[in-house]
Amino acid sequence: MNAALSTYLNLLRLVAALVVVLSHFAYPRFTDGDWLWVRELNLGSDAVVVFFVLSGFVISLTAAQKDHTLGAFAFARASRLISVALPALLLGWVLDQWGAAKAPGDYAVPFYNPLPLWEQVLRGLSFTNEWGGLATRLGSNGPYWSLSYEAAYYALFAVGFYLSGPRRGVLLLSGALLVGINILLLMPAWLMGVWVYRRLAHGHVLRDATAVLFAVLPVLLYLLALRFALPEVLRLHLQPHLSAHALRYSDEYLWNALLGGMVGIHLLGVAQLLRGIDLDWAERPVAWLAGASFSIYLIHYPLLQALHAARPDLSHAGLFGLTLFGCFAFAQLFERPLALWRRLALATVHGRAAPVTG
Fold first, then answer.
1. Burial environment of residue 68 by CB neighbours within 10 A (0 to 12, 13 to 18, 19 or more)
2. Fewer beta carbons below 10 Å: N end or C end of the chain?
3. Where is the Acyltransferase domain (predicted)?
């Protein structure tokens, strides 16, 4: 992957994280309905689908180029998730206790589920909080749902990539049954990222005109889909009649699959157009900003909720700005020092400090 494409993917990851924040900031209880159009378009859900496609791409890349064994892959994925998830669960619980004491009315169902800390940590660090039969919200942190999906996709991908023979088939089937239908319904978007990486890795080259078409047409189709409420049409009229409540965050699975395809085609076109393009001027600032994306996604909602509970008189700009400031501060403490956390984990296991790369 060339540097320009890496910069573009980082930018896309950052924008997706900010759109998720904006979609929650747009709740009328925070902003008096001024940003309600963001909620009505359901942009936050679409941004998570973008995350899934990017995740499938990056996981395929690291498995092929860096994590050459199942053990290395498992350590890399677990350390990446837990280094941010554990402090997010702990801080989220503290913020929820504080905010609920300040403004109990802000912490009501469905925006808050007062689970005890031990249960939040158990469900959160096992990443089973949305698996079949176990679905629940962890405190106020609604966005945590997608980590349950991500962890399942990592595990299923690892089985398919690193294992072979009957064992692979048995474990794939067992894993699919374990995680449940909701997780599997959104997996096509994640697998689209895998497909895009493999196309690029195999040296697939598009003609320039085709690349422009691939890069631009999905964006136009997406805007048209929103204009004519295609996600709602698909959900209400073409999907099998399953309970939206039972499907939880997978209730737009046809639209999510279609959107994942559009994102994948877009990335193929952009990858071709960026060949030979110099984006060195943007590489470092974009990488630094995107380096907080996971933290922005995972801690913004408890921060937003607690800040509003403590200071309901804050201006909209003040609430949004303080929430983002808290997210970047959190990232500085927990997300950016990933290499250090990995080194400490290895030192704990092996009884000595070990160099860690990547």
1. exposed
2. C
3. 8-328
Widest pairwise Cα distance in the chain? 61
- Tell me how far CA of residue 196 lies from CA of 211, 257, 271, 336, in angstroms: 14, 14, 10, 27
Among residues 300, 301, 298, 286, which one has the least CA distance to residue 335?
A: 298
Per-residue model confidence as pLDDT tens digits over 3-36: 999 999 999 999 999 999 999 999 999 999 999 9
Residue 357 has pLDDT above 70, yes or no: no
